[in-house]
Amino acid sequence: MNRRAVVLGGVALFVMGQSAWSAEGNFEYQLSEAEWRAKLGDLPYRVLREEATERAFTSPLDTETRAGTYHCAGCDLPAFSSEHKYDSGTGWPSFWQPLQNAVGTKADRSLFGTRTEVHCRRCGGHFGHVFDDGPQPTGKRYCMNGAALTFRLA
User: Fold this and answer.
1) Rounded to two decimals, what is the model's pTM?
2) 22: CB partners within 8 A, 6+ apart
3) Does position 151 have pLDDT exceeding 70, yes or no?
């Protein structure tokens, strides 16, 4: 079983397991587990490589409103534009669409049914999940972990 995060009452609970992406897929940007740990630090490592979830309302990127681009914290791939960001009220940075060719998805059956997990298409790092309760024009809510992203001003 992969390490998963369950957010209950605002507290992230972690189920221990193998690194989420280390055994899945051939991604063009790859590092060893030790290299990922050294590069990312604790929380980004747990989110990107072990599919953890940061606590709601803890990421400064949730309230970031300047024009710019959100990049994968693992491999620096541009993933989301500030033009597609909105305040979902969930406590995580939310977007109604990713940049073209930036993300991949897979079924996540770890918590109360099936959700759609979103990951970086270049390094496989876990970003969060996408839901069908977002604004138009897509109706999607890409609910991302701020620890999985870095922000660059336009």
Assistant:
1) 0.84
2) 33, 49
3) yes
